[in-house]
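Schema walkthrough. Field components (list of strings):
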Amino acid sequence: MKKTLVKSRLSEFVVGLVFGLGLIVSGMTDPGKVLGFLDLAGLWDPSLAFVMGGAIAVGLFAFALAKKRTTSFLGGAMQLPTSRDIDRRLVVGSLVFGVGWGLAGFCPGPAIVSAGAGQPKAIVFVLAMLVGMWLFEVAEGRLRSTAINQAGTH
Amino acid sequence: MLIDWTHFAPWSALAGGVLLGLASALFVLLNGRILGISGIVGGLLRPRTGDSGWRLAFVLGMLFAPGVYWLFAGATAPRIDASWGAVVAAGLLVGVGTRYGSGCTSGHGVCGLSRLSPRSLVATLAFMGAGFFTVFLVRHVLG
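Field assembly_structure (string):
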């Protein structure tokens, strides 16, 4: 393997580790705490607002710097999202995600970290999530192939 | 509004949040990408040559986090109250929803809001709103 590739893989591993530790320290890997935040009408635990606040306070500087760059510090191309559409997919998809988040108190990151801790329910959640993501790929693949077929017949 | 003072932990929340921000910052500056878990994992299901290694390295790092935390700080005690059926349903909804909505709490919530993206603000309001509504329904209407 080339030196730069090793450096990249190592940086991705370390960043994944730091992110996972952040999720544990912040309490995001405790579904009870997440649901405590989402339960406005019960005993409300505002902690997660502080998680978001802390993360965004750091993120604001990083992304302001990232926007000015054309290459990353490891030399690769910057791959920031270009879509600006606020469409039905974005809103309905996020609503569906929110319902699932509220049902169990897991979002993708904390579920994966908890699966790494060997939590049986987190492992089952991650497997179900992968099935959900796969269903999306299947549906999208069909859409893409029908679009190609239709383009072919005209 | 009643505050749950026994579980409210602003300092560890803030410290953990700073770590999440730091990881997102390192990722975009070193690798040029948005740290969004649903996108990173979902991309593994659409394999393209040379596109899976970085995703797997990242996920492996996340899976190691509980072990490293345990070494330095000991075990955690998460409260998982959802039934097995609810866990499966929730996983499916989170999987489909995050892919259609192009992101989750990390990609839209942390990175998107940090880059002041109106799209991510709408997504974050939508999933937070749906989360508040679902918990209200489950705990106070059906429960």
